[in-house]
Amino acid sequence: MQAERHEVRRERYEVRGVVQGVGFRPFVYRLALEEGLAGSIGNDTGGVTIEIEGPAERVEAFRRRLQAEAPPLSRIDSIVVREAPPRRETEFRINASAASGHVSTGIPADAATCADCLRELLDPNDRRYRYPFLNCTNCGPRYTITRRIPYDRPQTSMARFTMCPACQAEYDDPTNRRFHAQPNACPVCGPRVWLVAPDGADIPSGDPVTAAIERLMAGEIMAIKGIGGFHLAVDATNEAAVMRLRERKHRYGKPLAVMVRDLDAARAVCELSGEDEALLETVARPIVLAARRAGCGIADSVAPGIPWLGVFLPYAPLQHLLFADARVKALVMTSANLSEEPISIDNEEAIQRLRNIADAFLMHDREILQRCDDSVMAVVDGAPQLIRRARGFVPLAMPLPFDSPPLLAVGGHLKNVFALARGRFAYQSQHLGDLENLTGLGFFREALQHLMHTFEIEPEAVVHDLHPGYLSTSWAKEWAAERNLPLIAVQHHHAHIAACMAEHGIEGPAIGLSLDGTGYGTDGRIWGGEVLIVRLDGPNPGNFERFAHLDYVPMPGGEAAIREPWRMAFSALRTAGVDTEEAARLAGADSQQARIVERMMERGLNAPLTSSLGRLFDAVAAVVLKRRVVDYEAQAAIELEGFCVDEPDELSSGYALALLDGDQRARKPTRISAAPLWRELSTDLRAGVNKSSIAARFHAGVAAAFIGAAKLGRENTEIDKVALSGGCMHNRRVARLLRAGLEEEGFQVFEHRTVSPGDGGLSYGQAVVAAAILSHR
Ligand SMILES: [Zn+2]
Ligand SMILES: [Zn+2]
Ligand SMILES: [Zn+2]
Fold this sequence. Notes:
With 777 residues, the protein is of the alpha/beta class. 34% of the residues lie in helices and 22% in strands. It has 24 helices and 30 strands. A hairpin with a 2-residue loop joins strand 2 (38-44) and strand 3 (47-55). Bound molecules: zinc ion (3 copies).
């Protein structure tokens, strides 16, 4: 009996997952003290290693509690347990970080200020009262201040701030909430804020935050340095101030995000479901798209023409302070950049780029090492969906269904996100904006260097889109040539579907509905309304079968037809057999415009053919809403969805589209013709039918047509899984109608959740297809 009580056991754990920078070591230290155990813990490049020694039953309790009580920001993917010979140690130690070996640990994402820190921030008796950089192991910046892992202070932009004795004591005390909190700081030793004029001169002020509030209340535009970059901020209830921001930014239509003090304030401006509220309060604090309340006091020009608002809550102490005295009700907080350029992060660079926009700058001296915009999410079909992957979600690992050699997938053109893959994981970068110019490409290179460095991934293959004209494609070719690496091209809509399948762990086969704006097809045409049969586990995973597609119509003027939806409307109406005069009238074109466009279509000059569903949405919006020209991507489609938001979802009320002469054996895809739709729609317009019900019938018709095509696909292939992807899947009405209708027909339906259905998800899908090809070789 004596012997049993004194049986000493030593175990060694290798813990993998998100276990660095999330308070894991102090948690383990406390656990060891509570259980009276000796041993050690240290970060390594694979995660953490723990050695634990003591009475057997205590060791067992430790192992149980290690998983059950892990800190809130951590995520344990695996624990490998090994027994080791006891060393008769008497104390528990925290070892200095070891930096060698293969990196596979998850680096933590940035996390919003926790409740404990918020309490201190607003407590006049606390030594960090109103200190804009307080944080602890449960909250604060991570990815954006980290140069490389292991995540330790010397590897972050906090390295230059030497902790004062009080901070150091917290940092060294294993019972303290700030034990090994790498960005730990206080007003004595940490970063500070100050005000700067557009000419770069400091503006003296006793309290820069209060001075900033007063300027905002006076209608000024402030550039405010945050966690992942600068925001341009303006009082969201001040119509004139918001308009001035739009004029200076040359941004007229695009909706602007609004930050409010807390959940109650969010409820006052939006109608929120339980899911919306939960999403607003997650540690990632994304911008959430929700229904705007009428008369909520937010200026109309914040989100013109749509019934939604992108709303979010403060996630950094500095932001909490702006709302603390309740004078500021709501702030427009938009990424500080010029149109689609990357967000500014450096103080000098911000002044250079923003001095003609901002009236003053609220600066700080904690360097941002990684640009990161705010993430955007929405509740789609009752569950959250990621629309823009950025702060709070980078660089979380995503699963790959196949073992992958190290590879780089460069993504697409607009809303670029690249991915690095190795083994069973892919790591997507943050949203990098449009890759249209050298500034965008510079940001891409910078983020790639950082992520390659962080994860020590040296790509052995490069994956790109099939489009020969994308900047990402030509860059990929150059980069691969310099390194003598093989290239893999993946068709755009194939990548979309593969991303959705991999997200849900489907290796295939599946019927993919790739409903999208623009993607280069294998026939050189512009695709975007595609029904694909995808078999990732088949003998030829690089290929897919194009089972059906929207019938081709010309895009008169090419890219111009995207900016000017009236061109698509005219083209679609003429293709449907409507006469020139009537087509011009419905599209809102004058006779000269109609003549020019008609000539382009007849001669096939600068009128590429497209099967894009996004362009069909544009065309219908041009006719129904008179939206002739757009000033941001997908504006027409977003307005069309918003226009019928109060109409019921009735699949059966949809306009007809026709499924035409497919022959699978002859590899001839079924064509989905919108000609009958145009005839019914113009009849309704002439009859004076309510336009919101016309918009609703259009949505229902599109959904019904693709459900019909999926059924045909199932008859031919006996596949009953359907993956939904592409930019049109941001449309919540389409998503609802498709899911309900497909499930009614007995399909298993898969929608994107943690990967964007838009082009932000492309690189993940490219990596999936490439991994499938390479693992089959
Ligand atoms: Zn905290
Ligand atoms: Zn200090
Ligand atoms: Zn796309």
